[in-house]
Amino acid sequence: MIELFPCLSKRGLCRREGEIQLENISIIVNRRIAGRTKKEWYAEHKENIVKQKAQYHLDNKEEINKRRAKYYLDNKEKFAKRNAQYYLDNKEEIDKQSAQYRLDKKLKNK
């Protein structure tokens, strides 16, 4: 025990333990900081996580593409239904955007 700490909840006690761990980071063995939320842990390790994900993607590009292609083929009908329903629900807006796009393209080519 390092100190007596009055608190009303276990979370508060864990928070204080984490503060003490961070103050003595050079001499502690336990690298798991008590009372730290997942969000705080992620913010601290974000750079490494991004590097690891990018490296994983490079190392497994073919496997990832195979999985995506298989998922697409397995769910092709579901996607077609969803897209058809979206078109029906948003037909007016899509028609406006299409007309504007064609107009802009026509003016650009002149």
Q: Tell me the strand percentage band.
A: under 5%
Mean pLDDT: 92
Question: How many DSSP H or I helices?
Answer: 5
Helix content: over 70%
Please describe what this structure looks like.
- With 110 residues, this protein is mostly helical.
- It has two domains: 10-59, no CATH class; 61-109, no CATH class.
- It contains five helices and no strands.
- The longest helix has 22 residues, at 38-59.
- The protein is elongated and about 75 Å long.
Label this structure with key terms.
single chain, about 110 residues, about 75% helix
Write the topology of this structure:
Layout: H1 10-23, H2 38-59, H3 61-74, H4 76-89, H5 91-109
Provide a compact summary of the structure.
The protein is an all-alpha fold and 110 residues long. It has helices spanning 10-23, 38-59, 61-74, 76-89, 91-109.
